[in-house]
Design brief:
Radius of gyration: 28 Å
Helix content: 40-55%
Distance between the termini: 90 Å
Number of helices: 9
Strand order of the largest sheet: 1-3-2
Length: 169
């Protein structure tokens, strides 16, 4: 008696593999997605229809009409997302990562110097430190803040306060 170690399910999968290997219609690996629809973009950001199309209308990212439907280019969307702080993906991915590498918010500076945000606004304005507006929020470029920080002697960050403590001990 002949013993077949394969189960019916395994036989089926073996047969499918054999047919696929000889077929002219082999499955192709999926191509990398370059565009998403406006509704997809809206769902990703948790936005309603009007807000989705408002973002498109503001030309924050590249769009194309493909087969009669508006599509958002993924690369330009991700670049926009990395340089803004207002909108958040429902996946939990933090917005503004690229923006945060090159600038500080007033809250960041306040925490760093252990002062109030109002004092940050006051000192930066008085010193004429340049800022950029991102979604109506002020951001201070790191170079501009560092230049101001080196020019003054009153406020210190945690690292400099620690150095002073070490010298005084």
């Amino acid at each position: 008696m002949y013993y077949n170690p394969l189960t019916k399910e395994e036989e089926f999968h073996e047969l499918v593999k054999e047919i696929e290997s000889q077929s002219a219609y082999k499955r192709q690996p999926p191509t990398e997605k370059k565009y998403m629809s406006v509704p997809e973009m809206g769902r990703l950001l948790g936005l309603k229809k009007a807000d989705r199309y408002w973002l498109v209308h503001k030309n924050f990212f590249k769009t194309e009409v493909i087969l009669g439907k508006m599509r958002v280019e993924l690369e330009s969307f991700e670049k926009w997302y990395a340089n803004q702080v207002k909108y958040h993906k429902v996946t939990g991915e933090e917005p503004g990562l690229e923006l945060k590498k090159s600038s500080y918010s007033p809250r960041d500076i306040a925490e760093m110097l252990q002062i109030s945000e109002n004092l940050v606004y006051e000192k930066m304005k008085k010193a004429g430190v340049e800022f950029i507006l991102v979604d109506y929020w002020r951001r201070y470029p790191k170079k501009a803040f560092d230049k101001w920080y080196r020019s003054q002697k009153r406020y210190r960050n945690a690292e400099d306060r620690e150095k002073v403590r070490d010298i005084g001990v």
